[in-house]
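Hi all, long-time lurker, first post. I run a small reading group and we've been trying to get comfortable going from sequence to structure in the token notation. Rather than ask abstract questions, I figured I'd post a concrete chain and ask someone more experienced to write out its structure so we can walk through it together at our next meeting. Sequence below, copied exactly:
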Amino acid sequence: MKKLLGLLAVALAMGALILPSCSGSGSPTKVRVATDATWPPFESVNDQTKQIEGFDIDLFTAIAEKEGLELEFVNVGFDPLLAGMAQGTYDAAISSITITDERKQSMLFSDPYYSAGQIIAVRKDNTTITGVSNLAGNVGAQIGTTGAMEVEKVKAATLKTYDDIGLAFQDLMNGQIEAIVVDNWLALGYVARNADKLKTVGTTFTSETYGIAVAKGKDDLLAKINSGLAKVKSEGLIEQLSKKWIEK
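-- Answer (accepted) --
Happy to help. Here is the structure in token form:
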């Protein structure tokens, strides 16, 4: 009996040594990621599959594969997204988010991954608005965006905010507003699809860079994201995604 008990003790001890190595093989780190899927081609919901897709989704997915992260994308409006990041509701967010000093006060940011700037879109027959210097009337922008911030700086303009930028473009084409201030690539996409109704005027009048937002206190996650971002950048993924989503 003593011999049996001794063998059992040895077996249990060996099991204790084996178990950590099994669990230590590493389940992926789960990351809850907020995105506002209303900004094609960076993030939108595919009409057929009902899945969130786009430049940002592909980018973060590639980063996750490099760093052993398991992503759960949550579709949320842009203003609640920013509030949720500030409150720690989400681990991270990717949604064409411009890195600003104000936002840095309530969240962390990855290294930049894309450059953009604000531009003005108007109806095709508009001849009075030619740039930011004579922007006037009711001007649309998505709530919480740098576009909305820029409109608020213009005394002659009255800001009208939207949860969905697509609704702003509908109002513009229907004559409900005079102009929209929005990221250049997004404006160009809407204009290309409605060339008989819309145009952009002037040139981009801000210089911005996008980053992946990370909740404060999650420095380890930020380090992994930056590591993965550097890897996919070195492999030319940004250029590949630009051709796939933006230049098509």
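A couple of things your group might point at:
The CA atoms of residues 22 and 193 lie 53 Å apart.
The chain is about 40% helix and 25% strand.
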